[in-house]
Amino acid sequence: MNFLEGASPVRRAKATASTAAPSVLKLCCYSLVVFGAIFLQVTETVKHENFKICSQSGFCKRNRALADDATAAGSAWVSPYELEPASITMRNGKLKGTIWKTIDGQEERVELPLVFSFYEQGFVRLQIDEAKRLKGEIELRNGSKVRKERYHEAEKWALVPGLKLSTHAKHTTLEEAGVTRVHYGGITAFEAIIRHNPFEVRFLRDGEVHMVLNERNFLNMEHWRAKPEAKEDDVDNGEWDESFGGATDSKPRGPESVALDITFPGYAYVYGIPEHATSLALKETRGGEGNYNEPYRMYNADVFEYETDSPMTLYGSIPFMQAQRKGSTVGVLWLNAAETWVDVIKQKNNPLTFSTHDNSYKESTQTHWISESGILDLFVFLGPNASALYRDYGAITGYTTLPPMFSIAYHQCRWNYVSQDDVKTVDKKFDQFDIPYDVIWLDIEYTDEKKYFTWDPLTFSKPLDMVKGLDKRQRKLVAIIDPHIKKTDGYPVSSELTSRELAVKDKSSKIYDGWCWPGSSNWVDCFNPSTVSWWKEQFKFNKFVGSQRNVHIWNDMNEPSVFNGPETTMPKDNIFYDNWEHRDIHNLYGLTFHNATYSAVKERESQNEDKQLRPFVLTRSFFAGSQRTAAMWTGDNEAKWSHLQAAFPMLMAQGIAGMPFAGADVGGFFGNPSKELLTRWYQAGAFYPFFRAHAHIDAKRREPYLAGEPYVSIIREAVRLRYSLLPAWYSAFHRASWDGMPILRPMFVMFPDNEAGFSIDDQFFMGDTGLLVKPVVYEGAESVSIFLPDRQVYYDYKDFTIYKGESSNVEIKTPLERIPMLMRGGHVFVRRDRPRRSSGLMKYDPFTVVVSVGDEGVADGVLYLDDGETYAYKKGEFIHRSFIYNSAGNTLESRDLAPETANNRFVKNMKGVRIEKVILVGVKSGAVGKKGKVTVKSDGKTWDAKVTVEEGKDGKATVVVVRDPKVRYKFLALVITTSHN
Ligand SMILES: *[C@@H]1O[C@H](CO)[C@@H](O)[C@H](O)[C@H]1NC(C)=O
Ligand SMILES: *[C@@H]1O[C@H](CO)[C@@H](O)[C@H](O)[C@H]1NC(C)=O
Ligand SMILES: *[C@@H]1O[C@H](CO)[C@@H](O)[C@H](O)[C@H]1NC(C)=O
Question: What is its EC number (predicted)?
Answer without folding.
Answer: 3.2.1.20
